[in-house]
């Protein structure tokens, strides 16, 4: 009689573990399906382009690596839903109706390397808008007709940024202090903006010495139809750092004369005050001298009413009846 082999302890543990895994219902968040009207593939790519979406797609797989929501009518990127996609490296939001990006929109997307916000209605970029995107390599923000203000520190924390394109917006001035500090920046797109040719934009031309400016058809606004060429840079340099002219010298001469005149008048006034004060003191002393002489004339030993002995401690004189007694005693 043959006995069936008994299962080993290791086999029993594997069977029990399999039963537990099959019996426990998986979390809905981990098994979230593909969003409606979107296509998801095994490469962790979610494709929702051109689906007439007005809101950010829901039920997004948390493991999504690439998300494409371009060519829709989405007006807002909800931070609560977007920040669950912590593995996201590619985000295309171009050609939508985004009006602003809050500081918390990209708060947890630290792996994001590519971001496209072109063809939207953005108006301003704050200093912390892209702050959390420490791995951002390429940023495209072209064709936002209302985008006229980018904070000077808008890219200060994007140390990995290599390509920045802000072409065809409404920028007139761009403070590049934050761009100069980026160690890997190699290309900047600036064309199609109504740049001002004032001295406020002089530092913008330092970009030419640091990075490659793509699309070199850069021009100033209509009142200054000049390209961003060496001629323009030389013109601004001479206009913003020009030497002293004839009017400048005349101004300094006038200022010197005014200072000299003010000093002379002040010295004369002080001299007059000192002379008047000296005369006043002298007159005051002359008025006090006669009073001193009167007081001295009425002093000790003068006048009948004020007669006194020279020695106040001497004994009083003897009475008049006894004045001859000492003489008689002396004769005896």
UniProtKB/TrEMBL annotation:
SMART domains named among the record's database cross-references: LRR_TYP, LRRNT
One Pfam family this sequence matches: LRR_8
Positions of region (Disordered): 285-332
Transmembrane regions listed in the UniProt entry: 249-277
UniProt keyword list: Cell membrane, Disulfide bond, Ion channel, Ion transport, Leucine-rich repeat, Membrane, Repeat, Signal, Transmembrane, Transmembrane helix, Transport
Classification via InterPro entries: KCNMA1_auxiliary, Leu-rich_rpt, Leu-rich_rpt_typical-subtyp, LRR_dom_sf, LRRNT
Name of the protein described by the UniProt record: Si:dkey-52j6.3
Natural source organism: Salmo trutta (Brown trout)
Lineage, uppermost ranks: Eukaryota, Metazoa, Chordata, Craniata, Vertebrata
């Amino acid at each position: 009689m043959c006995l069936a082999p008994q299962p080993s302890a290791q086999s029993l543990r594997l069977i029990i573990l399999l039963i537990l895994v099959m019996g426990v219902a998986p979390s809905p968040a981990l098994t979230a399906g593909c969003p409606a009207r979107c296509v998801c593939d095994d490469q962790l790519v979610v494709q929702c382009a051109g689906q007439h979406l007005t809101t950010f797609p829901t039920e997004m797989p948390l493991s999504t690596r690439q998300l494409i929501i371009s060519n829709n009518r989405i007006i807002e990127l909800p931070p609560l839903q977007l920040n669950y996609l912590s593995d996201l490296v590619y985000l295309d939001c171009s050609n939508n109706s985004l009006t602003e990006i809050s500081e918390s929109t990209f708060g947890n997307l630290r792996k994001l390397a590519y971001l496209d916000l072109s063809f939207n209605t953005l108006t301003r970029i704050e200093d912390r808008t892209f702050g959390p995107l420490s791995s951002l390599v390429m940023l495209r923000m072209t064709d936002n007709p209302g985008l006229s203000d980018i904070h000077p520190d808008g890219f200060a924390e994007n140390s990995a940024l290599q390509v920045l394109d802000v072409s065809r917006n409404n920028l007139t001035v761009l403070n590049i202090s934050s761009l100069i500090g980026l160690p890997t920046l190699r290309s900047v797109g600036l064309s199609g903006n109504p740049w001002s040719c004032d001295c406020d934009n002089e530092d913008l031309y330092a970009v030419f010495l640091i990075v490659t400016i793509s699309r070199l058809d850069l021009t100033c606004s209509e009142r200054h139809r000049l390209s961003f060429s060496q001629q323009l840079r030389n013109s601004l340099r001479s206009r913003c750092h020009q030497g002293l002219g004839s009017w400048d010298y005349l101004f300094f001469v006038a200022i010197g004369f005014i200072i000299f005149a003010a000093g002379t008048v002040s010295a004369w006034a002080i001299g007059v005050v000192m002379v008047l004060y000296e005369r006043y003191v002298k007159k005051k002393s002359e008025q006090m001298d006669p009073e001193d002489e009167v007081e001295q004339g009425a002093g000790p030993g003068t006048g009948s009413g004020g007669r006194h002995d020279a020695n106040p401690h001497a004994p009083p004189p003897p009475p008049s009846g006894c004045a001859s007694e000492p003489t008689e005693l002396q004769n005896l």
